Structure formats: C-alpha cells, structure tokens
C-alpha cells in the first residue's frame, strides 16, 4: 500500500535557451506529490505517517520554496549573484530564516543563504522529479513522484528498495533499532 503526501512549492525559473516564452524569468506554484510504498506496519496500521514524510522531505524541499532555480550555465546566474553580493544578501540576511538543509547532488546544488538552487539540467517538471528522487531515494521508499507546474505535469514510478524498519507504536523509521520519537527499542 502507499502513503501519499503533497507539497506546494513557489519558485521562479526559466528555460535557458528554450525557444518559447518560458525562456523569460517567471514564477509558479508547483505541486509535488510523493508516494511512499511499503507493507502496512501492523502496529500502527499505516505504511508511513504522512507528517513524517512531510518532515523528511520538506527539510530539503524548503530549498525550492520562494527560491530562484537557474541552470548552471545560465548567464543570469552570475548576474543575479553580483546584485545579491552588492546588496549584501548573497550570504544570508536576518530575514531569510525559512531555510532548508544545504545539499549537493549530481543534478542540483542548493544555496539556502540566498534562496537559490543551481541545476545541471533545465528545471522542467521532469527535471524536478529527477532532482527530488535523487535527494530522497535513500530516506523514503519512493514509489512514485508527480510534479505539476502550470499546465505541465509529469510523473515517474520507481522501484522501492530500502528496507526501512518502522516503530510499531508510532510508525516512524527506527534509527539503530530505536524510535527517535517514543524511545521504543527493537527486541
Ligand atoms: Zn515555468
Ligand atoms: Zn515510536
């Protein structure tokens, strides 16, 4: 069975080099849906608590919310960084507090201090699914990701392969046989 969690992400991007209006900087509210698959955990009668999926995923997804997403070769990138630098906001600002954990993968690098994500490929809905899977594949048993942005929608199914042991009392992943939430210890 699957536990399904949805996130809204507001971001700005553009398709650098694309022959269409998307080559201009513009914004979206994107909706990301993550489906986690596993057996039903007998103790709690759920696959995985959705609020825990939310917590785990949002920690990295926060980087895309109220953020600018640019491809690494986009000339807007050095131009924007130059302005941020001159304004003294490139390396953070007291009002920039809703920051995710910085990450770097093959496909994307987050700069939470200036609300920027630099991507290897154009950030289409397909591109976003690849990025999100890469970021969360070892933390969650992701069976499917769907991303909707404007009229564009993409989805992809994945093979779930993590053997995640879950607490029979609260359903969350055990860390070294111990539940970080309720303290349950695996016998
Ligand atoms: Zn767009
Ligand atoms: Zn527990």
Short structural summary:
This protein has helices at residues 50-61, 76-87, 125-136; strands spanning 2-13, 26-37, 67-71, 108-111, 116-119, 142-149, 152-157.
Task: Describe the protein in words.
The protein is an alpha/beta fold and 187 residues long. It has a single domain, classed as 6-pyruvoyl tetrahydropterin synthase/QueD (Tetrahydropterin Synthase, Chain A), CATH 3.30.479. The protein is 19% helix and 27% strand. The chain is built from 3 helices and 7 strands, in the order E-E-H-E-H-E-E-H-E-E. Strands 4-5-3-1-2-6-7 form a 7-stranded mixed β-sheet. The protein is globular. 27% of the residues are buried. One zinc ion binds at residues 167, 169-170, 172, 179, 181-182, 184.
For this structure, what is the CATH homologous superfamily? 6-pyruvoyl tetrahydropterin synthase/QueD
Our measurement of the CA-to-CA distance between the termini, rounded to an integer number of angstroms, reads 26 Å
From the alpha-carbon coordinates, what is the Rg to the nearest angstrom?
18 Å
State the order of secondary-structure elements, H for helix, E for strand.
Answer: EEHEHEEHEE
Helix tally? 3
Strand content: 25-35%
Name the ligand types. Answer: zinc ion
Strand order of the largest sheet: 4-5-3-1-2-6-7
Uncertain spans, ≥5 residues at pLDDT below 50?
none
Number of separate domains: 1
Please write the CATH class name. Answer: Alpha Beta
Largest sheet: 7 strands, mixed
Strands, total number: 7
Q: What name does CATH use for the topology?
A: Tetrahydropterin Synthase, Chain A
Structural class by helix and strand composition: alpha/beta
CATH architecture: 2-Layer Sandwich
Helix content, binned percent: 10-25%
- Gross geometry: globular
Q: Round the mean pLDDT to the nearest integer and report it.
A: 95
């Amino acid at each position: 069975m699957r536990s399904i969690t949805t996130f809204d992400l507001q971001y700005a991007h553009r398709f650098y080099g694309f022959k269409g209006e998307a080559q201009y900087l513009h914004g979206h509210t994107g909706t990301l849906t993550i489906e986690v698959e596993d057996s039903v955990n007998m103790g709690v009668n759920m696959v995985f608590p959705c609020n825990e999926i939310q917590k785990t995923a949002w920690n990295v997804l926060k980087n895309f919310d109220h953020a600018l997403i640019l491809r690494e070769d986009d000339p807007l990138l050095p131009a924007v960084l130059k302005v941020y630098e001159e304004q003294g906001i490139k390396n953070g600002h007291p009002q920039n507090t809703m920051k995710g954990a910085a990450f770097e993968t093959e496909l994307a690098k987050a700069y939470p201090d200036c609300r920027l994500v630099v991507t290897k490929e154009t950030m289409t809905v397909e591109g976003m699914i690849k990025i999100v899977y890469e970021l969360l594949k070892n933390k969650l048993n992701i069976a499917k990701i769907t991303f909707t942005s404007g009229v564009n929608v993409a989805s992809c199914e994945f093979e779930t392969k993590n053997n995640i042991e879950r607490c029979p009392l609260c359903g969350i992943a055990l860390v070294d046989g111990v539940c970080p939430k309720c303290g349950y210890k695996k016998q």
